[in-house]
Amino acid sequence: MAKKKHRESTEPTAAAQTTETVTESEEDAAVSAAGSQTEAPAPMNAETEALRLELETQKDQFLRMAAEYDNYRKRTEKEKLATYDNAIATAVEAFLPVVDNFALALDAGQNMPEEFRKGLEMIAKKFEGAFEKLHVKAFGERGERFDPAFHNAISRADDPEIEEDHIVSVFQKGYQIGDKIIRHAMVQIAN
Fold first, then answer.
1. Residue 6 carries which DSSP code?
2. What pLDDT, in 10s, does the model give residues 34-47?
3. In the chain, what are the domain boundaries?
4. 3-state secondary structure 121-175
5. Which secondary structure element, helix H or strand E, spans residue 188, and what is its range?
6. Whether pLDDT at 14 is above 90
């Protein structure tokens, strides 16, 4: 019986050794498989990283080009409006002496016949209406504060009704379209 026990004790040992051998083989296969999986994605990751960097570069270039185009569009639109305003300013500037003469004629026309005076007033109103449609505004009125950006002061005068550095009288009205000054107003300002 003792021999039998010894055999039983050796049999499980052999089985255990076989199991251990199988387990070691499976682990080696798993490690080598894992190693091959780790190695295979490594070149893929480098390629993926290179593609990602190229995509980011292309995206950056695209966004810059889109921003440049947007700036170009805005700049050309602004230039187009400025060209339109410049053309109107040039045309209006040619008519300003005529408008000034109508204003002088109306101021001096105290002794003229009423029908003649009404005719001059109608023509002056037509000019005002045309300027309004073109967005041309007149400036330079008695009592306004003097602003050297809009007015040319040609003299000073004492006037108790007007505050200092305000317009006493207007010799020639000024005109502007938008921010563009067509003609500065010629004024006399209070001391």
1. H
2. 444 445 545 678 88
3. 135-191
4. HHHHHHHHHHHHHCCEEEECCCCCECCCCCEEEEEEECCCCCCCCEEEEEEECEE
5. strand 185-190
6. no
Rounded to 5 degrees, φ, ψ at 19 are -65, -40
The CATH homologous superfamily of the domain defined by 135-191: Head domain of nucleotide exchange factor GrpE (2.30.22.10)
Cβ atoms within 10 Å, residue 187:
25
- Rounded to whole angstroms, the Cα distance separating 151 from 155 reads 12
pLDDT at residue 114 greater than cutoff 90: no
Say which amino acid occupies 73.
R
What pLDDT is attached to residue 110?
76
Residue 55: pLDDT over 80 = yes
The one-letter amino acid at 51: L
Cβ burial of 159 (10 Å; 0-12, 13-18, 19+) is middle
